[in-house]
Amino acid sequence: MEKRRVAAITNDGKFTVIEENIPELKKGEVLVEVKASLISPGTELGCIALPLRKNPKPHAKPRKFGYSNAGIVIKQGPGCEDIPIGMRVACMGGGYALHTDYAVIPRNLMVPIPDGMSFEVASFAHLGATSLHALRRAQLQIGENVLILGLGIIGQIATQICVASNLHVAVIDKLPMRIELAKRVGAEPLMISPDDKEEEIVNRAKKFTRGYGMDCAIISFGGDATEVMKLIVKMMKVAPDTHPMGRIVIVGVANFQTYNWPVSMGNIDVRASSRPGPGYHDYLYEHGQDYPPVFVQWTTKRNMEEVLRMEEEGRINLKMLITHSIPFTDFAKGAEALISSPNEALGVIILY
Question: How many C-beta atoms lie closer than 10 Å to residue 257's C-beta?
Fold first, then answer.
């Protein structure tokens, strides 16, 4: 076994499969036989495939993609002799946890899968950790009012974690299926239809928060968020000096134009959160050099572990987010479904 198949995006945004040699294991890496991987609708399709369809790059080679999968350890690299062959693991990482049948994974970008949990569910670990890290950035407290805008996978998981943490959660999305999923776990929709007027949404937010206003908003979608940012400000809590206040965390690949910055934002803190936790993209950390827990408690790996523990204990339900499970040979159909039928596709799992 020297070759592997890898899903790729062509220079014009189409999907293909390439065959290549399995990379040699470096220190701190293991070889995983992949059983399931999760397609990320935002990062992989919205940020890679769709832009290439609008602006093809004629001379570009196919780009391998995928960063969240699960499987079985079948080979140990140097420094990984303590990781048992046959251990079931959830894996993450761009360039590592690809949509492929064999993945080379650094030891700190994988965690054991709890007994009884399926590979399909475990493959949510990366996006789950990203959701959890965004909520840590928000510094939420029990009983606060939280608004989540954008109910893709990250928004859905963030919604479930907030509800499980005794927070009051309101949501906004234009797709009925995604709104319905959030309602099933206890969230309150502020947008009933895409034609809702701004005033109606703001009034619903005021009623939902019993007049207090939102303490925090999580932006978990991509694209232009200028008008959404203005809407959020109108729903935030207001200090006696008439300034809006609270926290806004941006976890999606959103952008917005400034408007009378910073006056229009009052005392609102705007925070970025684009990672699953400290350590991701730090080569030494990824390959086994951990941070001192007393200084950095919630690393990428610990966030992955915590999300799977929440699932194992029944506090969140990742399985309900799976809309498609397809064999690797048909992965392009699942990816296209996310693009063409976003109200019917969300969690698309590739099986190997």
Answer: 10
Q: How far apart are CA 80 and CA 74, in angstroms?
A: 12
Name the domain boundary from 218, 240, 272. Answer: 272
Token look-up 């893709």 returns: 152
Total H helices, total E strands in the chain:
10, 19
- 194: CB partners within 8 A, 6+ apart: 174
Q: Which two tokens stand for residue 15?
A: 């999907």
> Hey, how many other C-beta atoms are within 10 angstroms of the C-beta on 118?
17
- Domain containing residue 196: CATH number: 3.40.50.720
Report residue 153: phi and psi, to 5°: -65, -45
> How far is it, in rounded angstroms, from Cα 214 to Cα 244?
10
Q: In which domain, by residue range, is 225 found?
A: 131-272
Residue 176: in which H helix or E strand, if any? Answer: helix 176-184
Any idea what the CATH number is for the domain that residue 48 is in?
3.90.180.10
Model pTM above 0.85: yes
Cβ-contact 99, 37 below 8 angstroms: yes
Q: How far apart are CA 306 and CA 312, in angstroms?
A: 10
Query: pLDDT tens digit string along 318-348?
Result: 999 999 999 999 998 888 888 888 899 999 9
Interatomic CA distance for residues 228 and 173, integer angstroms:
11
